[in-house]
Amino acid sequence: SAVISQKPSRDICQRGTSLTIQCQVDSQVTMMFWYRQQPGQSLTLIATANQGSEATYESGFVIDKFPISRPNLTFSTLTVSNMSPEDSSIYLCSAIIRTGNTEAFFGQGTRLTVV
Amino acid sequence: DAKTTQPTSMDCAEGRAANLPCNHSTISGNEYVYWYRQIHSQGPQYIIHGLKNNETNEMASLIITEDRKSSTLILPHATLRDTAVYYCIVRVAFAPDAGNMLTFGGGTRLMVKP
Predict the structure, then answer these.
(1) Which of A63, A83, B39, B106 gives a 20 to 30 Å CA spacing to B59?
(2) Nearest-5° angle of CA B109, CA A115, CA A32?
(3) Which residue in the set A35, A101, A109 is minimally distant from B94, CB to CB?
(4) Pairing mode of beta strands A110-114, B9-13
(5) Residues of B whose CB is below 8 A from A101
(6) How far apart are CA A41 and CA B47, in angstroms?
(7) What is the pLDDT tens value at each position of chain B, 114 positions in all?
(8) Which residue of B has its CA nearest to A56?
């Protein structure tokens, strides 16, 4: 199994500012992902964080708004840029620790409120 | 990945079995059935997965119909701590290349009552 730590766990931010969320995994992982969960909704994939290269974004999400870094196998960051109240959501980091038919693990999430 | 259909919500009495259904009529031969749950204010947690045989672990049992078009997650003795949103997801096996993300539907909100 894997333990995924996210920081911060929650934050309240002013509109127009940016917030960087950190995700640290306690074991080497093969793939890392970032999801968004808007209030009362299910999870939506933002992007796949690729080690040493640009992230792969899903439709509706762009790098300028959600820049992602993954400098090594166990760490990734997601930045929510130029925030507006519509960005208020829970942001979750996920990781797969090995290939094959195995489960994905999730962090506890970062609850972001933009005022 | 195949689409799944789950009831929006269900209630279960504490100590009784909770049976959560999932329809996945368009499932492909190489797609697995995964179940995750999300307890309030936490990230999703893996429960169980299967291809065509029934599976059991310390958390739950998974019953997949012979035609694989539907499945049921069984929590044999539900407790109050099992109150959560349960997601049924069908997908191919994780692979070294891209396409390993999970696609979440609406899930079933299970309320276990005393």
Answers:
(1) B106
(2) 55
(3) A101
(4) unpaired
(5) 32, 49, 93-94
(6) 20
(7) 668 999 999 999 999 999 999 999 999 888 899 999 999 989 999 999 999 989 999 999 999 999 999 999 999 999 999 999 999 999 887 665 556 678 899 999 999 999
(8) B98
Nearest chain A residue to B39, by CA: A108
Chain B nearest-CA distance from A101, in A, is 5
CB B47 within 8 A of CB B38: no
β-pair partners for B18: B75
A76 vs A5, B16, B68, B84, CA distance in Å? 11, 42, 37, 28
- Which chain A residues contact residue B101 at CB under 8 A? 33, 45, 48, 94
Measured between alpha carbons, how far is A18 from B2 in angstroms, rounded to an integer?
36
